[in-house]
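Co-fold these.
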Amino acid sequence: MNSTNNPKKMFVEIVKQLRQLIAEENITVGGKLPSERELAERLQVGRSTVREALRSLELLGLIETRRGEGTFLSDYRKHRLVELLSTFILTEAQSKEDVHTTRQALEKDAIHTICMSERLNALHIWDAFKEKIIEEEIIREDIIREIIIISDNRLSLKIWFLLKQFAGEPYQENLKLEEKSVWILLLTAIQSGEEQQAISLYNEWLLLINRGDV
Amino acid sequence: MNSTNNPKKMFVEIVKQLRQLIAEENITVGGKLPSERELAERLQVGRSTVREALRSLELLGLIETRRGEGTFLSDYRKHRLVELLSTFILTEAQSKEDVHTTRQALEKDAIHTICMSERLNALHIWDAFKEKIIEEEIIREDIIREIIIISDNRLSLKIWFLLKQFAGEPYQENLKLEEKSVWILLLTAIQSGEEQQAISLYNEWLLLINRGDV
DNA sequence: AATTACAAAGTGGTCAGACCACTCATAACT
DNA sequence: AGTTATGAGTGGTCTGACCACTTTGTAATT
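Predicted complex below.
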């Protein structure tokens, strides 16, 4: 029936072209985009159409606009994608569970990757890391982020970042004493490449924080 | 400096009011929203402002618009989280290696999930599955997709789908004879919940296809 | 010469009105 | 009754006009 039901949405096209433009002109985080009027002319569409695309990206937190100044490429930490979806619609239990599961999968994989890599687990970072955990107050989120960063998979990192916002959960809390000792062991396991041990310690940690909260 | 930098964005306000309106009027999935012109009048703003808000929601997949008909509340499952991830975030992290690693992490996690769930690995599906592998030609991609579907994590499934496209890889090929025997063992391991065994067989399979191709 | 004050240009924010393309229900016609 | 034509309603797009704000350049003042 709807064979050629393909009246491509203009503003979606503009979004694509914007991405392309950003890539071509090598606009980096914080950089300035052309003005709405200029974009309209360059892309051969009306200004209102450009605005529809820009507003979409702004709602997502991908760009930032300042009246009188211009439009700027936003920091990736400001992406509001997940946040928005969660407040608007995605509140089903199943979905939240999915997010947790998926995020943990990424975390485990990071641990796995580091354990397998002689280059990574031999880094001098780890001892300093352990000291920091012992001596300072440290947020759960920070330690995991660090691990994923070290695992050197930027894609995973980005996805993890987005998923993290979703739960808004106990990741913001400080490591408690029990957790610290688990993490010390975990990091030691990572250093010596004992994946099995590391993963089971990680699971142990999950149990710990799930028992404490919620 | 920017203490009260709070010149609330109009279209963001409209987004909020729209959500409120949807709640008040009890508009359900698939239901029709008021027309743009009516919304403009009711919310006391210009039509273009209403459109900026609507377009934002549409980009997220929260609503659906059909020319000549109207604007409709979209199905939950059409949200575009992952698609947007691909267009804006994945471009930078295009290291193919990252894509592979992340995708495999999701695959392993699916196997893990199924192994741990007595409900899932007890399904009657598995035997039929094995037969199919033995008797028919089957594409690599199909078997993995099936497993992720069974693991019942929609988010993972979406992300996996996306990554799959980006890889453009050997997943389209048929299972070769050696692979088939590995998979039979793998499925058996899953059935009996032997996670260790299943994962190591999965890794074995990865070696197999990486030796053959590329 | 240095500083200040002011005007102009540039930018995003918003609105109103005008078409267009499309869908659908209904009236008019055969 | 069946078909066709019409018109109202809707989203899609463009144009031009203001407004509020920031930046910048320049002229006036010191």
